[in-house]
Batch of 4 targets.
Target 1
Amino acid sequence: MTEQGRVLVVDDDETVRDVVRRYLEVAGFEVDVAGDGTEGLRLFSTTGPDLVVLDVMMPGLNGLEVCRRLRQVSQVPVVMLTALGEEENRIAGLQLGADDYVTKPFSPKELALRVASVLRRARMPRPEPAARVITDGDLALQMSARQAALGGVELPLTSREFDLLAFFLTHPGVAFSRADLLEKVWGWDFGDQSTVTVHVRRLREKIEKNPAKPVRVATVWGVGYRYDPVRR
């Protein structure tokens, strides 16, 4: 295992696989490659990567289905590769739990930097408040264990969803723009703000009684989002 970590690249284009592999290896990663979704799932189970780079459009088992199956068994960070103009696939990937995406054609150097950023964020120790458990009504977050529960039932949150919810809970009543959240939760000073929109939607589906009429994560029109505690 290298210090940077192990990355699994799943793409049916041999040229893309080779270029991405070489750039990631230069960046210090150990890299495994797969030419289709089935092989990707097999390698995932045998190599235990720290992050998966996953092409959306593949014959047979496509990237969205692979991501869905990965999320059934693991919260490993996933970076999706999507073609320019495939907004629906990008959103679908984020809804399935992908952590980030890069649009083709892309700079392999940028992809390597994005992979490093996602991994660094996933490994970063999170500062905790004085209380190790944050509560709001029937919602509870155990910060050290990185677990969340609603009404005593554990919530299946991805790492990014947990970070977003923890940020909201520790900043109640404050309106944040999507750009603010992208910087403060994702740690990015650039990126597609629709990433935030999709993660907020996923979070509402898990913590709101009626996601269409949220009472905790409120939309502030013209600004972004605000967390309104159930118990002040």
Target 2
Amino acid sequence: MAANPDPIEIVTSHGPALVHPRPSDADRTGALLLGHGAGGGVGAPDLLAATSAARAAGLDVYLVEQPYRVAGRRAPAPARQLDAAWLEVLAHLRAHVLGDAPVVVGGRSSGARVACRTAADGGARGVLCLAFPLHPPGRAADPSKSRLPELEAVGVPVLIVQGARDPFGMPPAGPGRTIVTQPGDHSLKGDLPGVRAAVGQWLTQLLTIGT
């Protein structure tokens, strides 16, 4: 098996980000950018399962490590900084690597929120959300804590893969929004083959319809 390409350092207005390329296993049909959770990294099991599915479906995958993680901090940067750095990374990749290839964006937890908030500005074909944190644990009854508006604002197809016992809640289905429930909690470790299958099927359909 060929070694993975070296990470790409991209300087953003909030410090350097690292992008970890994972080339497609087949003829390229597009690209998938994936972001990590607030306190985790790009090696999370569900991100790796999604990466495997995307590569099999013909997408080059780019795992994006936000500047605060590159700097060694676990506490996430403010949302506006996360979004700005993400869009700068995407713009750099479009200019130097991706060209006019269709781009799907996504991530797990906090990374999924970033992908949703920036989907329009980034020209995304679709958004993949792994363990979308609908509300903080124990705050389901407080409408002011809901992140549903971030999902509702997305104007392209969305797949949400969610653990049945996720303490961050279960997002509702909606127009253009598909929910796939998996066993387990916020980690999505309960059925990683199921995660791969759901992501692979959705990506294949998304890019077939978009051609």
Target 3
Amino acid sequence: MPTFRISEAADLLGVSADTVRRWVDSGRLPADRGGSGHRVLEGADLAAFMSSGDHEDPARRTSSARNRFRGLVTHVVRDRVMASVEIQAGPHRVVSLMSREAADELGLEVGSTATAVVKSTNVVIETTGDRHA
């Protein structure tokens, strides 16, 4: 049966290794000492924990949106009515267009943290490479 080190489980869960250690220490997530003395998690136990949703942000459980990108605001452009806000969330760049009022109320500025919550239909843009005049 596959086993995972704490750091590997953290990567799969999208949390820090310290968070996984706290879950193990509190008994929320079972782990054993491997041959090297380090704590390891059985793949089946980790899968059950991930399927249970116990590791998710409580806000996520009260929303139908499942795509959440927590990151750092890297760019904000405001005009009189609208604002464009760019968030870098790991390797993902997310840009949101919103009212200026909303951006102001949220206090969005470069260097602040924010979470982009994406709930939308599928949008695909393709080109054939041909340009028609």
Target 4
Amino acid sequence: MSDNLYAYGVTPDDGDIELDVTGVEGADHVYTVSHGPLAAVVSDIGDMEPERTDENVRAHDDVLRAVMVDAERTVVPMQFGMVFKGKRPLKNILRTGRPTFSRSLSDIEGTMELGVKFVADEDAHYDREEMGQVVDDRLEPVSVGTIVNDLFSDRLVVNRSYLVEREEREAFDEAVTELDEEYDDLTLQYTGPWAPYNFVDIAIEAQ
């Protein structure tokens, strides 16, 4: 068996995590490697450079979602493709990065990222700035952070990422539903929960 470890993210070391989820490259066992107050969520992998297929990317996100939702843990996500040659280099990352990881975990404690897009019908016209403000006015009271993403299509009117506390998820869902019901000529694309990629800024190199 390979000693290579695929890392999904870093979470507080609050005991073992038992997740019923399939990892990258079909891994059937997702577990944690701990060092001090931190733990990395990992699975075993043979390839040091896993292929970035839709299935593997989906598995990466599914594991992070399971950590947040099923295990109810805060997690700092790692980018896809982080593979370490065994536990020692991974623990070294947890040791050297402890201040940064701990600060980020504190900043995003108990939260998840949710994506909100509104796409206009072909014959509908909206002022993007005004509509963005309308959406923010409704969603910012039930969230703790907002990122304005690129409007990469002519019909894309709003593209936001929101950082939402776990306890506010239901209220946020309701606010999004109300917005969707008010605008018949806008199509809602509501995604997540995601690990809060847009709300942490940590550069990690695999070893």
